[in-house]
Every structure is written in structure tokens, then in C-alpha cells.
């Protein structure tokens, strides 16, 4: 078997993993990335620092191996805008998918029908941190940056360009918001609806399915690997996690309980209801007859981190806190919309905000934390209902390291959850994609067989059935307030 390094360039952490013939990790490394939160809802990253984390983890895992590396497989965070020149150097700091500077613009687009028009053409709803509103914002407020740029892309293709010299983009990243999923080409009407026709040249053409690139001299020197080494550049982390977990049958889904809460369902049809709520993503995958209906809510484990900071709790004590409060959190209810840029799935509202209700003097910190964890699970159920989950549900991400929270997810969703036990699911998906592109035979069933299953507790699920109805009622009332 080829020895392929899988690199997952996350928002706050870059990870590299190498797997053996059975899909077990034999070498891994990680390095943190810096995220800058600025006034006005801006969230940015220094591309050179992020690129440095890639070099660090690749060199670290290479040193752990006893033989040569045969290929490099990249995946990582999606959305945002990473503006680069023709040589791959950023002309301004990278704008993260977490960014909220275009909140007001997106709200105006919702009022005037722009978001509806783009959704009608592409099946993807826009949110403040995706390319459409960010590019339109920059066109008004920083036109010189766009003038200096040769390409407006994403994290993975930015790294790929510096390593190979190629200007391209994976079709999964290009899916939101301008790609027609049926043709796998940009929809010119969607670009025009966003007022960006005059910036059309900044959009790199999507790479062909299973495209393979090569390390150039600069990339080889940066990583300490041979020039000419095969490199693949995608899919981005959401579809990569689905592939790595074993999502292969239409109707199957994956819950990624990470910084964000990503809910995805595999489908064999690019069709969608053009009159539905303009939210979520219809993502193309490496297989041209498979698509992922993505509903990535903004806040997952980031909400728990916030609550622990506010309450003076160590996040390592999460399981103990959840066990100390009964299902239903002793009457405390929450809405989990803690992102400053609102929510993007299964609805889009830049004004969405969190809330806690039902509090009294007898409630404890454990009740507050449990109410928030339950509300995030309710949000996941809402997303999966919108995405059309009917089959097996897989899960990954930092959140599933908590046995108590994973049990809440299973009980709220009312279905068993299969959790791969090997780390680096995104990197694994990138490696499986690279192996297919290089025609390397892999027993995918064996690679995804190492997993455990969390079963549903029927009596607790009944409690959460009522809780979910209350959640939807609270959300409906809150959306009316936000609209005012």
C-alpha cells in the first residue's frame, strides 16, 4: 500500500495522520493555528502561520516513519475567503468562515431576494462567512485588495497553490455559493445576483474529479519531501469526514461535533426544493453521482467552551457535570446560537442569538451546561430533519469524546450513533480520496470497521421528544423577535 500523509488544516488546529493497510493510525502530529477576532465581527487568520503548521506536522510525522512517503492528501476548513496573488501569497489576511463583517449585507440580501435567487440556482444558502457576501463586502470596502488578487479561494486550495504552483479549487469548496451542482460549473446568474460579475476572474475553475497535482521545488523544500510527490487537494473537511467515517449509502449521515456543528446526509440526487428555506449546502463529492446535503450549524463545542469559561469550569469535567443534572436539565431550556454572525443552518439569520429560560434559585451550573448540550442536540435534530437523514448515523469531532454528551445526541436524535474509534477522520477521508485518485486499492470496509455504537435509551428519548417540541416553539418565537 502507498504511504500517504493525510493533512487536515482545521480552523484552530492542523493535524497530520498516516494510516497502515487496515486504516489504523501509525503516525500523527498536530500544531495550533492562530485565529484573530477583531472589531466589527471580523475573524481572520495569517496564511503564512497556517502554512507553517502544515510544514510542521508533515515534517513531524515523516520523522516518525521508517520509509519514504508516496503522496500527500490535503483537506481542511471551508468557506471564508483567502485572497492570493499569482504566486500564492495572500494580499490581505485570510477571512475565516467565522467572520461576521457582512452580517448587515446578508440581512439586506435576504430582504431583497438575493439569497433566494442564489439558492434557487445552486441549492446552497448563503451566510455571512461564505464567499458571496464576503466578496461583495470587500468589493465595497476594500476594492484595492480584490484588485491585487489573482484568486479568491479557500484554505485548502491556498495551501495547494503554495505547494504545487497550481491555481484550482476542489469542487466541494466551490459548491457554496456559486456552483451549479448538476453541471459542476459556476452559475453565472448566481454570481451576477451577488453583484460580482466584474470579479468573476477571481474564481478558480474547479478541478476535475480525482485530480492529482505534484509538489514543486518550493513545496518540497517547505515540507522536506521529494519534488514531484503526488498531492491531492480536497475535499474540504466536511465531506472528508463523511468519507473517512464510512458514509457511502444514500440516506446515511454524519454528525461532526466540532467547533461548528456539522450535519450531513449523502444523496444520489442534485435535486432540491427551490422554494425551500435558503439554508445549508448542496456539496459535490469526488464521486460524480453522489452529493452531500450539509446543514452546518455555527456553534458546536465552541458553545461548551464558552459556557465552561463563563462558569469557571474545566471542560474536562463535562461528563461529570452532565451526569449531575437529569435529562431536561431540571427545567432549564436554551437556544444555542452563540456565534456573533448568527446562524446558517437549518435557517440563516445573522441576528440569531442564544438564550436560557426556566432558571430559578435551585438551578446549578450543571443544569446550565446540560441545557446547552441538550439545545445543541436539538439543533442537530433540526438540521438532520432538513437534510433528510434516513439511514445509519455516524459521528466524529471533539464533542463525541464526552460519553454523556454523545448519549444525549443519540437520545435526542432517536437513533444509534456509530463512532469511529481511530482519530483523524478528516485526514482519513482525504487519504481515501487520494488513494482512489492514484488507483490504489483499499478495503474501505476494513478501514471504517473499527467503531463503537451508542444506543438509544427509549424512556429518555421520550423525554427529549417533548423537549424538542418545546425547542421548536421557542425558536419560532425567537425568530419573530430577531426579525424585529
From TrEMBL:
InterPro entries hit by this protein: ATPase_NBD, Carb_kinase_FGGY, FGGY_C, FGGY_Carb_Kinase, FGGY_N
Residue intervals of the Carbohydrate kinase FGGY N-terminal domain: 4-244
Entries under SUPFAM superfamilies matching the protein: Actin-like ATPase domain (SSF53067)
Pfam annotation, one family: FGGY_N
GO biological process, one term: D-xylose metabolic process
Sample GO molecular function, one term: kinase activity
Similarity section: Belongs to the FGGY kinase family.
Alphabetized UniProt keyword annotations: Carbohydrate metabolism, Kinase, Transferase, Xylose metabolism
Gene3D superfamilies, A to Z: 3.30.420.40
Keyword DNA-binding listed: no
The organism of origin for this protein: Saccharomonospora viridis (strain ATCC 15386 / DSM 43017 / JCM 3036 / CCUG 5913 / NBRC 12207 / NCIMB 9602 / P101)
Domain Carbohydrate kinase FGGY C-terminal positions: 320-437
Official protein name in the record: Pentulose/hexulose kinase
Amino acid at each position: 500500500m502507498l504511504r500517504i500523509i493525510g493533512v487536515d488544516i482545521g480552523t484552530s488546529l492542523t493535524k497530520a495522520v498516516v494510516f497502515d493497510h487496515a486504516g489504523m493510525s501509525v503516525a500523527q502530529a498536530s500544531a495550533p493555528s492562530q485565529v484573530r477576532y477583531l472589531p466589527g465581527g471580523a475573524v481572520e487568520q495569517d496564511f503564512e502561520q497556517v502554512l507553517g503548521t502544515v510544514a510542521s506536522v508533515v515534517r513531524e510525522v515523516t520523522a516518525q516513519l521508517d520509509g519514504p512517503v508516496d503522496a500527500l492528501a490535503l483537506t481542511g476548513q471551508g468557506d471564508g475567503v483567502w485572497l492570493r496573488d499569482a504566486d500564492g501569497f495572500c494580499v490581505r489576511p485570510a477571512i475565516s468562515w467565522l467572520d461576521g463583517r457582512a452580517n448587515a449585507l446578508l440581512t439586506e440580501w435576504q430582504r431583497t431576494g438575493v439569497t433566494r435567487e442564489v439558492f434557487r440556482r445552486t441549492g446552497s444558502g448563503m451566510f455571512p462567512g461564505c464567499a458571496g457576501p464576503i466578496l461583495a463586502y470587500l468589493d465595497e470596502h476594500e476594492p484595492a485588495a480584490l484588485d491585487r488578487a489573482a484568486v479568491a479561494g479557500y484554505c485548502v486550495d491556498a495551501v495547494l497553490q503554495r505547494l504545487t504552483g497550481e491555481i484550482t479549487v476542489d469542487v466541494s469548496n466551490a459548491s457554496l455559493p456559486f456552483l451549479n451542482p448538476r453541471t459542476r460549473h459556476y452559475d453565472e446568474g448566481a454570481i451576477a445576483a451577488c453583484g460580482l460579475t466584474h470579479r468573476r476572474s477571481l474564481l478558480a475553475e474547479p478541478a476535475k474529479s480525482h485530480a492529482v497535482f505534484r509538489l514543486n521545488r518550493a513545496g518540497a523544500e517547505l515540507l522536506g519531501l521529494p519534488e514531484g510527490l503526488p498531492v491531492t487537494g480536497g475535499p474540504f473537511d466536511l465531506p472528508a469526514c463523511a468519507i473517512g467515517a464510512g458514509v457511502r449509502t444514500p440516506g446515511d449521515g454524519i454528525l461532526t461535533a466540532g467547533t461548528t456543528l456539522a450535519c450531513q446526509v449523502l444523496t444520489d440526487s442534485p435535486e432540491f426544493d427551490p422554494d425551500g428555506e435558503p439554508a445549508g449546502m448542496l456539496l459535490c463529492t469526488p464521486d460524480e453521482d453522489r452529493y452531500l446535503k450539509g446543514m452546518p450549524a455555527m456553534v458546536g463545542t465552541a458553545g461548551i467552551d464558552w459556557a465552561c469559561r463563563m462558569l469557571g469550569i474545566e471542560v474536562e469535567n463535562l461528563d461529570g457535570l452532565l451526569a449531575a443534572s437529569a435529562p431536561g436539565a431540571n427545567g432549564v431550556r436554551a437556544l444555542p446560537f452563540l456565534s456573533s454572525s448568527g446562524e446558517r443552518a437549518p435557517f440563516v439569520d445573522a441576528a440569531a442569538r442564544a438564550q436560557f429560560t426556566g432558571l430559578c434559585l435551585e438551578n446549578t451550573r450543571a443544569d446550565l451546561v446540560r441545557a446547552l448540550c441538550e439545545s445543541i442536540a436539538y439543533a442537530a435534530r433540526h438540521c438532520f430533519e432538513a437534510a433528510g437523514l434516513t439511514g445509519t448515523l455516524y459521528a466524529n469531532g471533539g464533542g463525541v469524546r464526552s460519553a454523556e454528551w454523545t448519549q444525549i445526541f443519540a437520545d435526542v436524535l432517536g437513533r444509534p450513533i456509530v463512532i469511529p474509534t481511530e482519530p483523524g477522520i478528516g485526514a482519513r477521508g482525504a487519504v481515501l480520496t487520494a488513494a482512489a485518485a492514484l488507483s490504489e486499492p483499499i478495503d474501505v470496509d476494513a478501514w471504517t470497521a473499527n467503531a463503537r455504537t451508542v444506543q438509544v435509551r427509549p424512556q429518555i428519548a421520550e423525554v427529549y421528544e417533548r423537549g424538542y417540541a418545546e425547542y421548536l416553539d421557542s425558536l419560532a418565537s425567537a425568530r419573530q423577535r430577531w426579525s424585529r
